[in-house]
Structure formats: C-alpha cells, structure tokens
Amino acid sequence: MFLARGLVIAAPRSGSGKTVITLGLLAALRRRGVVVAPAKTGPDYIDPAFLSRAALRDAVNLDPWSMSAPRLKSIAAIQSTGADLLLVEGVMGLFDGAADNTGSTADLAELLELPVVLVVDADRQSQSVAPLVAGFANWRPGVRIAGTILNRVASMKHERMLTEAVAATGIPCLGAIPRDTALVVPERHLGLVLPGEVAAFETFLDAAAQTIANYIDLARLQTLAAPIANGQTPPTPLPPLGQRIAIARDDAFAFLYPHLIDGWRAQGAELSFFSPLADEAPSPDADAVYLPGGYPELHGAALATAATFKAGLTAARDRGALLYGECGGFMVLGETLVDKAGHGYQMTGLLPVTTRIDRPKRILGYRRLIQSGGLPWPGHLNGHEFHYSSAKQSRLTPLFAATDARGDALPPMGAVIGRVMGSYAHVVDAA
User: Fold this and answer.
1) Pair 294, 403 in one domain
2) Who has greater pLDDT, 188 or 261?
3) Which segment of 59-68, 266-275, 304-313, 391-400 scores lowest on mean pLDDT?
4) What mean pLDDT is reported for the chain?
5) Residue of 27, 327, 357, 415 marked catalytic
6) 171 part of a folded domain
7) Residue 164 pLDDT more than 60?
8) In a domain, 234, yes or no
9) Confidence class of residue 204 from pLDDT cuts 50, 70 and 90?
10) pLDDT tier at 188 (50, 70, 90 boundaries)?
11) What is the CATH number of the domain that holds 11?
C-alpha cells in the first residue's frame, strides 16, 4: 500500500539556500492545490516551525542518527497520510553526517528510497557546476539525484552557461533562481529565528512562493517524486512521563518533537499545556511536568516574575510529580539565569544550578545517553545537544552519563534531586 509520494530537497553544503527554496516550494505547491506534508532531516526544532507555517500542516523530524529505520519509515508514512507529496528538507550537505559518519540526508533518502533534488548555489561559478552535480550524483549508488535547482544565478547569460553545463550530466535542471537579497531569513544564535519573530513573514513567504512559481518547473518536480511505502509496525514509542502530563508551551518553551507527543497520546497519556510566560501554572492534577527547550534567556524578566508558574512547579514537586526539563527547561529549573547582557534573573530554584549565556560557547552534537534518574524511559537513549549557555552547579547526581556520536566519553550531564531532573540534552528516541 502506498500513501503518497516523496522528495528530498538537499544541497552540497549548508548556506546553499535549501531552506528558503523548500519554504517557497511548500507555499507554491499549496497554492496550486497540492497537499504537501513537510519534514526536516535531523533534530532541528526551528526549521520545522517555518516548514509548518509554509505548508499549513505540522512538520515532523526524521533523524537518521537518533531514530531507528522502523521509526523513520513509520513517521514518514504517518506524516504523508492524506497528502499528495512528502517534501523533506535535508540538513547541511547531502552526505554530511555526525562524527561517526552516519545520520546524513543521504542516509535518510536511501532508507526511505526517495529521490533527491539538489539545490546548487551557483554564485561565482559557471561550467564547474557540471562536475559538482555529476560528482554528487555518482558518489553513492543508493542515492539518486533526480533533479537540480540552481540558486543565486546572476543573469540570463549566467543561467544559460549553467543549464548547458548541467545538461551534459543527464540530470534534469528544474529551474534557476536569480539572486534576491529579499529572500533571506534572519538568523539567531541557535540558527533561524522562529517564524513569529520575522517581521512580515507572510510577505516573505509570498515572495518566496512567487519566485518559485516563476522560475521552477513545479509540474516536472512532482513527477520526480517516488512512492512512500507504508512502513512496518512501528517500534514502541518512548513511554509517557506520566499519566497526566502538563507541558510548557510558549515562545520560551517552543522545542517539542511531535513524534514524542503523538507517542504519549497513543499510549493513553492525558496532555495539557500551559504558558509560563503568561504566568500559568501546570495543571494541579498533573503527575508529570515537562519543560522543553526554547529561548528562556530572551524572557528572563518575565519568567523571574512569574509567581504563579513558580508556585505551581513547587506544588507539583511537593506532591511527588516528576519534573523534567530539557536545555531551556533545565535552565529554568535552576536558581539563576544570566542573559547575554549579564543580567541575572531568579528562576524556579528547584535545582541548585546557575546558567549563563553572557560568555557564549557553542556546544553541539549528538549524544548517546545512559540515564541514572527516574525517567520512565529505557536506560540507553539517543539525543543531541545544541546551546551557547553554560551551567555551574553544586555536587549533584547527574541525570545522564554521555558519549558523543563516536562513543568518546563526555562529562556527566544534568542533575537530579528526587523527582526533579534535567539536562542540556534533547532526547529523541531510545538507543
């Protein structure tokens, strides 16, 4: 049984414009009446928020490093149900993966048997585009480059030189996008900002959709898509944190994986949501409270004065509920958060931890985790870490023993006091 057809949008390297082109494709196809289901390769939270806005349909993560093959096939099949096309945005360069050389966009495309459309940044090159495209097309037999999109083309003469060169490879060129400084999404320290923070985002999206419609052969692009097989019975999702889970969700706590939430619901958990920024407390009957990642450092003052929120967390702890924070949520469970300007804000004080981002240092990578806390999950987990803040804490029981993607040992992560626990790790799936 086939549910839909799918394509992967990839590039030779980061910065080639694949995010803007994917957004434009989603919006342009949607406006033609095509139901497009969006997905993002890897563990990133921010690109899926943009993809969701462009498709008017929630995006999912497909992470070939952290997730098993059955999990990936199941999520892809479920996501494409009721859609005409599953459009998967790649991550970094097509063959770029983790430090152990796995988890690339190419790995995902090969596993799902989906063809790749390669977005090539043509700035400052002409005929040399042909060996670049040919090299990517012939590098790995199981990965099929079905077409190319040329980006940042300088002129009609430049386009003619490029398309004639690509024609010699035998790989279809679906179109050429001219240089346009308006088609740029601003960045923040963790990558792209959230869509709600981009002034006139709908205007930007309209421009991207119109550009794609003007310069890309959308009908031909759709013919390149391959069927998505209905996957085998999916593995059991990570168990819910409790029977009644209160989840923080607002601009400070925006990083949630849909597959985890859907898995908890499927196992019978009752989910409620609350906004710490609106000074809301978790539901008083919750037996678990989940503080996901996000940007609490941008909202230090609001969180510091959120007395109802803080009292609600303390009450949840006192009645024995599980309190779990990831990255930004871990920071808020601590005592003090120091923002980029050096201002300190009092957080919930449930863990004796001080976090600060006024001395930024990027920490990024996949993590293999062995938990020592009371999380109702398997002992071995896969996740990732991506932050610029740092934590100083007293001697506490760590939540995780950790290694990087290669298996090299890392310092223990996070902290546990009773049923209150957290770390900088974002957990994706069981190992």
Assistant:
1) yes
2) 261
3) 391-400
4) 93
5) 327
6) yes
7) yes
8) no
9) confident
10) very low
11) 3.40.50.300
pTM above 0.70? yes
The residue segments making up the domain with residue 266 are 244-430
Q: Are residues 276 and 183 in the same domain?
A: no
3-state secondary structure labels for all residues of the chain: CEEEEEEEEECCCCCCCHHHHHHHHHHHHHHCCCCEEEEEECCCCHHHHHHHHHHCCCCEEECCCCCCHHHHHHHHHHHHCCCCEEEEECCCCCCCCCCCCCCCHHHHHHHHCCCEEEEEECCCCCCCHHHHHHHHHHCCCCCCEEEEEEEEECCHHHHHHHHHHHHCCCCCEEEEEECCCCCCCCEECCEECCHHHCCCHHHHHHHHHHHHHHHECHHHHHHCCEEEECCCCCCCCCCCCCCEEEEECECCECECCHHHHHHHHHCCCEEEEECHHHCCCCCCCCCEEEECECCHHHHHHHHHCCHHHHHHHHHHHHCCCEEEEECHHHHHHCCEEECCCCCEEECCCCCCEEEECCCCCCEEEEEEEEECCCCCCCCEEEEEEEECCEEEECCCECCEEEECCCCCEEEEECEEECCEEEECCEEEEEC
Tell me whether residue 327 is one of the annotated catalytic residues.
Answer: yes
Is the domain of 30 the same as that of 65?
yes
pLDDT digits (tens, 9 = 90+) for 50-109: 899 999 999 999 999 999 999 999 999 999 999 999 999 999 999 999 999 999 999 999
CATH number at residue 404: 3.40.50.880
Residues 220 and 259 placed together within one structural domain of the fold: no
pLDDT of residue 202: 84
